[in-house]
Amino acid sequence: MENKKTFSFQSEIKELLHLMIHSLYSNKEIFLRELISNASDAIEKIRFEKLYHPNKYQKNTDIPKIKISIKKTENKIIISDNGIGMTHEEVIKNLGTIAKSGTKSFLNKINKIENKEKNDFIGQFGVGFYSSFIVADSVSVYTKHASNDGDEGTLWISNGEGDYTVESTTIKKHGTKIILFLKKNEKEFLENWKIKQIIKKYSDHIPVPVELENYDEKTKTLTWEKINEAQAIWTKNKNEISKESYQKFYTYITNDSEKPLTWSHNKVEGKQEYINILYIPKKAAWDMWHKENKHGLKLYVKHVYVMDKATQFLPNYLRFVKGIIDSQDLPLNISREILQDSSVTNILRKSLTKKVLGMLNSLKNENKKKYQKFWDTFGLVLKEGLAEDSSNQKVIANLLKFASIKTKKKQQILSLNKYISNMTPEQKKIYFLTSDSYKSGLSSPHLEIFKEKNIDVLILSDRIDEWMMNYLTEFNNIKFQSVSKSDSSIEKLTSEKNNNIDINQFDNFIKKIKKILDKKIKDVRITYRLKNTPSIVLTDTNDMSTQMAKIFSAAGQPVPKIKYILEINPNHPLIQKIKKVENQEEFSNWIDVLFLQSVLAEKGSLDNPNIFIEKINNLFLS
Asked: Where is region (A) located (predicted)?
């Protein structure tokens, strides 16, 4: 047997332990939820191994169960399971490091929030085994792997301060036993009623019996009482499951302190047989935007747990969905790689995707308040689906919400169906404007003619929107049109008959502007779309838009130089003043300033603002 060795925790473990031990943590009871969850997973793994390798594990015939003993006089709790256990190497690897990617980001984020909010945030993260140190001064772990036929196991001990010891010890049966030596002020967890309450709250639906030891003082005998229901909730008839039970199961699989917005429980029979429970959360997971972290469903095959976060059953734009799938058609030895190429997986993926989109559509039609809550939280993610999922584009488009001129607020509350129902008789397209923010978009000179004509324009200010609009080209056979691009339908909205200006008087003026700006611009022309602004710049129909150029630039990608179309408002006093300037140098300065201020209004920045300032100063001095 190996001698005792001392190891230091990984630096991120030290931070996490310090955070839990020294922060104000009101929901201490989650330690038991986490330990029972780990024990349940260990039992599910041995069940899987016995089915997949029956000869290797045939000696393991014990009935799967989790046992909890309370030793009041010794101030300790013992949680044991007859699951797969750990080898000596696995103990060092699993109890000394955090394998979960994104942990550093989690620690950085949680250190910035208030103590009163840390409780829910840590609970949502799921801190697993290390939550033991919230209530314990010292933790001992006795474990032996099920493949080990001998009596040699491993003992791990730590007080959570920075180091831990690992040594070999004698253990007869496979599994894991965790002994928590409680802190003096945590005696409430030595009461049977308290343990029962926690198990009922968090672990009632794990498919493994949880038994609590009872000692009868009169008869001096020990008995074991099963506390949880110990039946997989998804195997029951829907009519037998209460709303509260669905919500508790959601808490169990997600660690989320909030109740879900909605859920769906489905049993499908036919070519493929499977059961699923799908949940739409109320709030986003802390790591939703961490691409390296997997998001997916919990996979069971024939009621046997196979893997967590199986990403293959839902597209990435539905990564906010939580739940389980239990398939009768996949092989028990399925791997992530095989899942990726499995025809059964592809069929399930299509079916589950349609189910989730159907859930969202029902929520949108039946509970507008809840759907708005969903959209405010996950709308940005759902927008990704327009590019990722061409087969469901129409369904996704129907779920979109927007801000617009007429909504008069940043919150996206307008559906495309509602927009179309509000269209004016002369309107032939769905108009939109992409901008850095709703406020800057609302004040854009591109909107002047639309405000005058009482035509609504969607204002798209999320970073993904410009990219999204490359895929959202029409809805219900009505095309989308950017108001910052050249388009004949916008020009038709203007009426030259209402203008007293003779357009021919501006021919020479336009020629002079083109000569001054030369290669800086693509064209110069008169427009009647402007009311309060002297000029604007547009991109041509098939050219890259300003917002797309910003996205490319922010991503460090090369951006082709945009050649704008300069449009002049002939009715504006400034244009009429510039037209009368005879001094060539002064006229040239005016045209440069006119062009640069139009670019500034469009882009929000200039390549060289000093030139712009210099030319303005020259005009002040002239």
From this structure: 1-336
Structurally, at CATH architecture level, domain 233-367 sits in 2-Layer Sandwich (3.30)
Compute φ and ψ for 179, nearest 5 degrees.
Answer: -110, 120
In the block, residue with structure tokens 């793994």: 45
**Residues 6 or more apart from 558 whose CB is under 8 A from it?**
552
pLDDT given for residue 161 in this prediction = 84
> What is d(CA 297, CA 308) in angstroms, rounded to the nearest whole number?
7
- On the CB side of 408, how many CA atoms lie within 13 Å of its CA? 2
Q: Which residue ranges make up each domain of the chain? A: 5-226, 233-367, 400-493, 497-622
Q: Which residue has the tokens 């200039």?
A: 606
d(CA 446, CA 529): 8
CA–CA distance, 415 with 540 (Å, rounded to integer): 28
What's 497-622's CATH class? mainly alpha
Q: Which residues does the annotation place in the binding site for ATP?
A: 34, 38, 81, 86, 94, 100-102, 124-129, 176, 336
Q: Which residues fall in the annotated binding site?
A: 34, 38, 81, 86, 94, 100-102, 124-129, 176, 336
For residue 460, what are its two tokens?
A: 């798209």
Rounded to two decimals, the pTM is 0.77
Three-state SS sequence of 415-446:
CHHHHHHCCCCCCCCEEEEECCCHHHHHCCHH
Which pLDDT belongs to residue 116? 45
CA-CA distances (angstroms) from residue 617 to 522, 538, 553, 611? 27, 27, 30, 10
pLDDT, tens digit, 9 for 90 and up, residues 317-340: 999 999 999 998 888 777 777 788
Homologous superfamily of 5-226:
Histidine kinase-like ATPase, C-terminal domain (3.30.565.10)
Domain 400-493 has CATH 1.10.10.10: no
